[in-house]
User: What shape does this take?
Amino acid sequence: MNRAAAITTFLKIVSGLIPASGGTIQINSRDVDEPQPDFGIAFQQANLMPWRSVLDNVLFPMEILRRSNTAATLAAKELLALVGLEEFEQSYPSQLSGGMQQRVALCRALIHKPKLLLMDEPFGALDELTRMEMQDLLLDIRAKTGATVMFVTHSISEAVYISDFIAVFSKRPSVVADYIEVNLPYPRLAEIRYIAEFTEIEHRAGRALGITR
Amino acid sequence: MTAREIRNAVYPLLGVSFILLAWQLYTHIFGINRIVLPSPFDILRASILHWDILLRESWPTFLESVLGFTLAVVIGIPFAIGVASSRVLNLTLYPILIATQSVPKVAVAPIILVWFGLGMQSELVIAFLVAFFPIVVDTAAGIRATPPGLLELARSLRASSLQVFLKIQFPAALPFIFAGAKVAVTLAVIGAVIGEFIGSIGGWAICF
Assistant: This one.
């Protein structure tokens, strides 16, 4: 199994979507062996429902959890405003760009106020500039919602920019090759990408991945 | 009327007129026997001359096709849902369905006539049989083609099977279901007319 597939599998085990073939997953001393309603997930594909408007897509988890009411609709509108999509509530996914769809998916992952947000390369399909915007947006949302985020990425700079801790997965067999604490100050602004500590962490992650010496 | 609406009306009319004109000229220039290929004008004349029979006999054919098609939708969609969502049902029923589908309906039409008798019920059954297959196959394909990411999302929220079906699988399958219905509705008319050809007391086939 290659690294990307291994990490996706790992994330699905953490989310309780697939059972672990060995060992156990514990989060806050709670065993995770089935999907947890207080987790939110966002994957590389936005996976929006083309037949639902943006607002209804965001409200989908609330419908499943039987918590859709006026308060939920208001919360959805607030989230959409937070990601700058307040004018697109009634639009359909096909009318949005990839970055906008990913922002809708992010709102959908957050609507039921999850304590843990699991994200598998959610910005992987976006262009570099949109990606940087989304990183800032994610930091902003994390600060506002207080959710813990577990984020898979193949971009070293993305990992350093948004993380407090980075677990570096090695190639075959995929084990945690390094666990790096990121002590960069908040708020993180784009300038931080060019300071020495940032580069040092990038370098250390690169060494753990075996791409730099 | 906007320019677009005019265009939408003019171009289809232009297409039809061109075909009819070419047809008329072909039969005229080459002196085609009207038994072999009647010209559009001949057909129009005959239709006007015998409009009362045509109209009277349209009703049974129309009813047979519509009822056969409706029956195919009402039975076919739940059948397809069963086949698509249960592995056991799929393995048990799908091969039989495919196998029976390879039998030409024209060949079984006489025996259906024996079973159901002369009259509308036989034609209705044949219309149903031909319309059933595309509806089942397309609905089942549509349900199976539900994006796996959406199913995963539903599962992560612990959605019930009913919720998954109503909120994800069924809407995701709708384009497929309509594609199947489009094929089925035309086949239902053919099925009804086949039934009438074999033996019938009314309908389009007796006009020929």
In short: Residues 3-154 of chain A form a domain with the Rossmann fold fold (CATH 3.40.50.300). DSSP finds seven helices and seven strands in chain A.
